[in-house]
Amino acid sequence: MELNIQQIMEILPHRPPFLLVDKITECEPGVKATGIKCVTMNEPFFTGHFPGQPIMPGVLILEALAQTGALLAVSGMEGDLSDKLFFFTGLDGVKFRRQVVPGDRLELHCDNIRMKLKLCKMDARAYVDGKLAAEAQITAAIGDRPKA
């Protein structure tokens, strides 16, 4: 299964500039998902990180992986998910292996380790040109969206 940006926006509550997945190229519900984030100089965080040497903040690479993981987590779920949110509950084994800069295409891989009730744990890796840029184990919970 593939998802374009419109389909992603129907599932995730994030919006630019905090929507960090442009496309899902592969999703095997409950098993694995692969997403794409095209990094451009137009990203607002490059203004201050760092002037003259733009580098994507590592925490935003992790956020892109988490958003891909959220799409994986809900891919096998049925019913209306518009009142649900995906919350980080933990990050383990986080390692940054290379810098991500404008012009890079992040390939975001999430593999489900365990999904029990509304808790999930997944292996997450981000690559640029086939080279590992970041990795982590992400633990998250699916919860109810607060009422406005």
What features would you describe in this structure?
The N and C termini lie far apart (33 Å). This protein has two helices and six strands; from the N terminus they run αββαββββ. It has a six-stranded antiparallel beta sheet with strand order 1-2-4-5-6-3, covered by helices on one side. The chain has helices spanning 5-11, 58-75; strands at 23-28, 32-38, 84-96, 105-116, 119-128, 131-144. It has 148 residues and is of the alpha+beta class. Strand 4 (105-116) and strand 5 form a beta hairpin.
In short:
This protein is an alpha+beta fold and 148 residues long.
Describe the protein's topology.
Blueprint: H1 5-11, E1 23-28, E2 32-38, H2 58-75, E3 84-96, E4 105-116, E5 119-128, E6 131-144
Antiparallel strand pairs: 1-2, 2-4, 3-6, 4-5, 5-6
Q: What is the average of the pLDDT values? A: 93
Radius of gyration: 15 Å
The SS-based structural class is alpha+beta
Q: How many β-strands, per DSSP?
A: 6
- The residue ranges in which pLDDT falls below 50 over 5 or more consecutive positions are none
- Report the span from N to C terminus: 33 Å
Largest sheet, strands/sense/barrel? 6 strands, antiparallel
Helix percent band: 10-25%
